[in-house]
């Protein structure tokens, strides 16, 4: 993201707040930007730094063309310092080096910005050292901390920061990011609706358990359509072996939900909305087996099964009852 106008589409609330602060020249001395992977924390950090240094800023928008903007983009601005984990953590020495750097006068102005990526990975000593730094902020110093795990940040640090919480990515945004990362369009579509969290969705592309889960779901649909007398045996011997706990079974029910939603999309001639696009032949066959009223009823039954899982009903009984009701 090279402009606030682009960022506002992904994070409207946080973007508007920062733009207003920039226009009114009321920038805080410290920000904590929290949000899931892919929500735009790093992009906001870059934009905020450029907005503070750009000499051709228009309202709140950095020009992206001046010497300052280009050096920030390349990571070579002398008064903008990035701190990233050194291995598995951010260490005390890294914060100590930052403090030393900030004792010097700015190379080109009195403005200084430091950005800490994965601030939750600071060691205890590093976090305590940063806290002392935040307690005595320089007038022209801005700290930008970024985290995916707000709970791991010291409360004393959070109390000294203005907290910006980024909203989760929409399934459409997750799909676009997955495709940009090389995930096939169909898988990206499925992963984005099953796991709207980008990091979790990315893991599904390499997850053999999930691939088998999808295969079992399609097998179950086929058995329900043509070999209903084998359904309970399939549930007991294959389905429950794979979906072996409540969380896994809940995901299996989600996969079934998206299948029956796809049947509705097909009946409404909205093929572009399908999740299981590579199973078009199987979906079309299923539309001949279940009427729209059947599908609506089954979706309600699946929702009730998910509710029963939260009420400590035995998972096998939940699935057996569901498939028996789906056959009626």
Count of individual helical segments: 16
Strand runs, count? 5
**CATH architecture heading of the largest domain:** 3-Layer(aba) Sandwich
Mean of all residue-level pLDDT scores: 90
What structural class do the secondary elements suggest? alpha/beta
Domain tally: 2
Q: Give the CATH H-level superfamily of the largest domain.
A: P-loop containing nucleotide triphosphate hydrolases
Major sheet: size, sense and barrel closure? 5 strands, parallel
How far the N terminus sits from the C terminus, by CA atoms, comes to: 52 Å
Helical residue percent?
Answer: 55-70%
Widest sheet: strand ordering:
2-3-4-1-5
Radius of gyration from CA coordinates: 26 Å
Stated plainly, the CATH topology of the largest domain is called Rossmann fold
Bin the strand percentage: 5-15%
SSE run: HHEHHEHEHEHEHHHHHHHHH
Low-pLDDT parts are none
Please identify the top-level CATH class of the largest domain. Answer: Alpha Beta
Q: Please state the oligomeric state of the protein chains shown.
A: single chain
| Bulk shape | elongated
